Structures are given as C-alpha cells and as structure tokens.
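Problem statement: downstream parser choked on a complex file, so we are re-checking the raw output for the S-adenosylmethionine run. The parser issue turned out to be on our end (a line-ending mismatch), but while we're here, posting the original submission so the record is complete.
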Amino acid sequence: MEINKDADSRRLFKDLAWVWQIISPKEGYEKETELFIKMMNIYSKKNIQTLLNLGCGGGHHDYTFKKVFKVTGVDISEEMLYFARKLNKEVRYVNGDMRNISLIDKFDAVAILDSIVYMKTEDELLNTFKTAAEHLNPGGVLITFCKISKESFTHECNSNSVHKKGSVEIVSFKNFYDSDPKDNSVEGLYFFIIRENKKVKIEIDQHSFGLFSIETWKRILKDTGFEINVVDFNLREHNIPLFICIKK
Ligand SMILES: C[S@@+](CC[C@H](N)C(=O)[O-])C[C@H]1O[C@@H](n2cnc3c(N)ncnc32)[C@H](O)[C@@H]1O
C-alpha cells in the first residue's frame, strides 16, 4: 500500500465522524475546557458572555463552554456539526471555513483549540487569527494553543488506545511522521480496528498538520494585532504553550 505524504483524507471528520465520538468522547474535554474558561477570565479585559469556537468539531469543548457562555461554533465539516448539534441543542452551529468566515456578530471571546493544527502555511495561520480578531469586541480574548511545534516534535509521537461504546469496540493507532523537516507540515496516519457483532473492519485515515516554531506563532499573532500572553499549559500530559491574546 502506498500513501502520499501530502494526502489529507480526514475521514475522521467525514464518513468516520461517528468514530470520533467514540475514540474522543466529550468526557475527556471537561477538565481542560474548565481551565480554558479560567484562563480567559483571568486575562480578559471584559466580562465574557459570548464565545465563538472556530473548528468546534463534534462540540465536545462546547459541552462545557455552554454552561457559562452563549456559544457559536463554526466547522468546515457538516458531518462533525451533525454530532455537535445533537449534543448541544442550545448552541448555534454554522458551517464554514475559519480561514475566511465572516459572521455579522462580534464576540467577547474566540477559541481555536485542537483545530488550529490543520493550518499548514503561515498565510493560513494568519488568516485564521485575522478571522478571530475580526469577530472580537475590543478588549476581547482569543485562546489558542500550539499542540505540536518545530521545537517539540519527535518521531516518538505514536499512540494506541482501546474504546468501547455499546456493542462497538475500536482499537486506534496513531503515528505522526515528519518526512521533510524543512517544510511546515507533518503527516498523521490513523488505523482503526472496528469490531461489532463478531465482524471486524480496518479503516485507514491520513491527516496533514502544520508545524511551526513558537517564535513563528508569536510573530503571526503580533502581526494580527494581538497583545499576547503565553502560559505553560499541561494538556493531556504534554506541556504546551497556551496563547491568551487580547484584541487591542
Ligand atoms: C480535532 S477536531 C475538533 C474536535 C473538537 N474539539 C470537539 O470538541 O469535538 C478538528 C476540527 O477542525 C475542523 N477544521 C479543520 N480545518 C478547518 C477549517 N479550515 N475551518 C473550520 N473547521 C476546520 C475539522 O473539520 C474538525 O472538526
């Protein structure tokens, strides 16, 4: 089997979106979302009432955000939004691309969480941060994080896990690989062994992620016009930089 290094099938957000709900359930997001809320409240110059979540996926962060904010979620995948709408009936969901979406509303806070890794060029990062800035009220706060960076990336980024829901069991293997350290992307290969009613299926998926230095992140956030604060953040046992940025 041959796989092209730049392929980006992202089946996990399309025909395999149901698999995402099982391998990455909402319960796994509650603690980190509470911390994001705490950090936004510490740094924000205003009382946060409304939040825009760009790349909201299945709405697992929104499940906790909606307890304290009025939430709007944006995602490029209708399949993911189907699950988000089912989970969070109180949240408004809009299908769109965070690199260029333009809503009429302005918000007190914008979150761009585990979706930002899909920005693969500096222009894409810049355009996404511009989208955030354009949707913020003055003094509003953007929260985002750099999950993989040029400084921290290693080829030991492999993992496997087992998940069960009802009669379905999914074993998931993940492998990240940087086949060209000179460019700004890495490949992520996913293998799923799916068992149900004594039947076994194997599904393969490939994603391509952006990989930039922390200095590049800071420069682009500053170029967008944000005042930036960087906090060391422990996300699922990895220390990563959390950016809490204020719109001037
Ligand atoms: C890891 S998932 C997010 C999961 C989410 N935190 C949750 O609670 O389920 C990443 C999401 O980013 C979305 N995404 C990737 N590129 C995007 C873009 N350009 N605009 C909007 N959404 C995007 C994908 O469709 C996917 O739903």
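For whoever reads this later: Residues 228 and 245 are 4 Å apart (CA to CA).
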